[in-house]
Design brief:
0% strand, elongated, single chain
């Protein structure tokens, strides 16, 4: 099921994946600056950590996309729907 989801989302991650990772990284830096200067609430720090972790996960997914497809493919088949 995860393999089918990765195949379905391939155009999105190929086009917008790295841009999304950069935006999440900038959002986490912005939240750190906001928390450091204006507000010291824990929810700001938690959202900053969440943005940073999401940035790392999207970057790993985009970088090793073909590896994930290879590892999660149906067993006994080498079906790759694109080059």
């Amino acid at each position: 099921m995860l393999y089918k989801l990765l195949v379905l989302l391939h155009p999105f991650f190929r086009i917008a994946g790295r841009g999304l990772a950069v935006l999440l990284l900038l959002a986490s830096f912005g939240l750190v600056a906001y928390a450091a200067y204006y507000e010291n609430a824990p929810w700001v720090w938690f959202s900053c950590v969440g943005c940073f972790v999401a940035c790392l996960l999207v970057t790993l997914l985009c970088t090793f996309y073909n590896w994930w497809l290879f590892k999660l493919r149906p067993r006994g088949a080498l079906f790759m729907p694109f080059d």
